[in-house]
Amino acid sequence: MTELDKPHHLIPDPDTVRERPPRVVIRVTLCQDNEIKQGGVELIDLWDRSGDDKIWIDVLGPTRADIEPLLEHRFGFHELAAEDSLSPNTLPKYDPFPDYDFLVFRAINMNVADHQVDTLKLAAFLGRNFLFTVYQSHLVSTDSTWTRLPLDRRMIDRGCDFLLYSILDVLVDLHFPLIDRLEESVDEIHESIFTETSPALLDELLHLKRDLNVLRRSSLPQRELFNQISRGDAKFVKEEHQIYYRDLYDHMFRIGESIDVERDLIAGTMEAYLSMIANRTNDIMKVLTIFSAIILPVNLIASIYGMNFEHMPELKWKLGYLWAFGLMAVVGLLMLVWFNKKGWLFPRKRKKRKRSDRRRVAQAKT
Fold first, then answer.
1. Of the candidates 137, 157, 177, which is a domain's last residue?
2. Which of 13, 171, 209, 268 registers the highest number of CB atoms within 10 A of its CB?
3. 250 lies in a domain?
4. Same structural domain, 152 and 286
5. Buried b (16+ CB within 10 A) or exposed e, 117-142
6. Computed from CA positions of residues 207, 123, 61, 139, in that sequence, does the dihedral angle turn out positive or negative?
7. pTM for the complete prediction?
8. Which residues have a Cβ under 8 Å from the Cβ of 345 and sit 6 or more positions away?
9. 328 lies in some domain
10. How many angstroms from the chain centroid is the CA of residue 161?
11. Sign, Cα dihedral of 193, 198, 202, 205
């Protein structure tokens, strides 16, 4: 058995996806005579396109030379669809063809701690009795579905469109734990800026904003794609299965709303950070101004007693030196008391707002 024929059962860790070099892996699942067979490309020869047998061909890390004969020559897929299935930057979309539907989805790939975020493309050719999936990097959604399929054969018994839904259901649900981790990071920074205003916090906010923008660019068109399918635009998605794609649309809508809320919170947090920096600068200037104001009358007294006039009342007074210093100290203390009474020295601290209150305010704005 060649490397292309070996099935791959391993479900990868999303945080280690980047470290694995891409390799071409073709996995085939054939449902024939109420029996599920899993293997390599040799199972394609056992499948009859005009019959009722169902087949799922899963291709990981293909190159044009590897996949073009299978896509264009053996299955007759359009050359533009085949080209889009290999392009890494194609956004979610739907293209109808007479014998199949061509769809592109984006899976999330994120390491929140290191701010390594991007989206991975999943291309799908969906026909009456076949599903062809093509992608360049390991996807948890396809690997988990491949593993579950022999244990839950109803995924393919109900049709290839339901099998595609099963893959996409995992793909969409993987957004939620990562969105939660982003929310926790934003909340931690929001709380930290009131006790610490270091440039590292601003740098972290800018990275989180970039991460959310990457997610938003792919989530909006993908949400619209699920809406198209749920409305019945996809010819090879059965009417009774459109409600499942409607559920995926609802999930993507919630994800989009969460992304927008977090973007608003980041914008508010950045404004609060800049306000804290400005307030800190104002506090420094206020302290310097207060000390300058105290020095002014003290300097005035010292200047008066430093004048070289022969006839001054306190020049020959034994306690004149102490009198001058005492007068300076009394004037300085009186000014400090007056400044403190005005609230210029030690302003009252505001109570911290709870995290739930901040999130409720941000959601109310949206």
1. 157
2. 171
3. no
4. no
5. bbbbbbbbbbbebbbbbbbbbbbbbb
6. positive
7. 0.71
8. 290, 336, 339
9. yes
10. 29
11. negative
Cα–Cα distance measured from residue 185 to residue 183, given in angstroms and rounded to the nearest whole number: 5
Half-sphere exposure of 91 (CA within 13 A, CB side): 12
Q: Measure the CA–CA gap between 301 and 289, rounded to whole angstroms.
A: 19
pLDDT computed for residue 347 by the predictor:
59
Q: Which of 147, 12, 215, 200 is nearest to 155 (CA)?
A: 147
Buried b (16+ CB within 10 A) or exposed e, 334-344: ebeeebeeeee
Cβ–Cβ < 8 Å for 190, 358? yes
Domain for residue 257, yes or no? no
**Residue 2, number of CB atoms within 10 A of its CB:** 9
For residue 337, the surrounding DSSP H or E stretch is helix 320-341
- Domain of residue 321 covers 282-365
Element spanning 290, H or E:
helix 242-305
Q: Report the CATH number that the domain containing residue 122 is assigned in CATH.
A: 3.30.460.20
How many CB atoms neighbour CB 274 within 10 A? 13
- Could you give the CA distance from residue 100 to residue 76 in angstroms, rounded to a whole number? 10
CATH number at residue 347: 1.20.58.340
Structure tokens at 235: 């010819």
Whole-angstrom distance, CA of residue 325 vs CA of residue 301:
9
Convert the pLDDT of each residue in 111-129 to its tens digit: 766 777 778 899 999 999 9
Look at the chain and report how many structural domains it folds into: 2
H helical segments located in 14-150: 64-68, 79-86, 140-148
Q: Are 221 and 93 in contact (CB under 8 A)?
A: yes
CA 362 to chain centre: 18
Q: With a cut of 70, list the residues of the chain below it in pLDDT.
A: 1-23, 112-113, 307-312, 314-315, 344-366
pLDDT computed for residue 112 by the predictor: 65
Distance CA 310, CA 315 (A): 8
> Tokens 């649900």 map to which residue?
173
Hey, how many other C-beta atoms are within 10 angstroms of the C-beta on 218?
A: 19
